[in-house]
């Protein structure tokens, strides 16, 4: 029973992380503007759904691990997406690859803590509309 609980915990934590990573990757790829950015938060203007522009913000919260990942749409309330982050710095790098003064790539790192280990999901997202 103990092993089953560990396996289920890993599956659930990894699944939540993968869904969050997919959402962030899609939203940042379509971003037209960065409103604010830091290692723990990123706010962008982006297109979702039927070509309608939205303001989307992602941030970490908490004073110690496990940290929470939260999302906000169009200035509404932040909602918690997952609660298993071991590191609050989910945006460790912003890149201006063509040196024009505009960030056009962001690195996302989600360090997810399970009952027995940490798993890191990483994605480098090229912002196509910047």
Keywords:
single chain, 130 residues, alpha+beta, 3-stranded antiparallel β-sheet, 1 helix, 22% helix, 45% strand
Characterization of the model:
- By secondary structure, the chain is of the alpha+beta class.
- 22% of the residues lie in helices and 45% in strands.
- The protein has 1 helix and 8 strands, in the order αββββββββ.
- It has one helix at 2-29, and strands at residues 33-37, 41-48, 52-61, 67-73, 79-85, 93-95, 105-113, 118-126.
- A 5-stranded antiparallel sheet has the order 1-2-3-4-5, with helices on one face.
- The mean pLDDT is 92.
Q: How would you classify the quaternary structure?
A: single chain
- Give the overall silhouette: globular
Largest sheet: 5 strands, antiparallel
Low-confidence stretches: none
Q: Mean pLDDT across all residues, rounded?
A: 92
Order of helices and strands: HEEEEEEEE
Question: Can you summarize this structure?
Answer:
The chain contains one helix and eight strands; from the N terminus they run H-E-E-E-E-E-E-E-E.
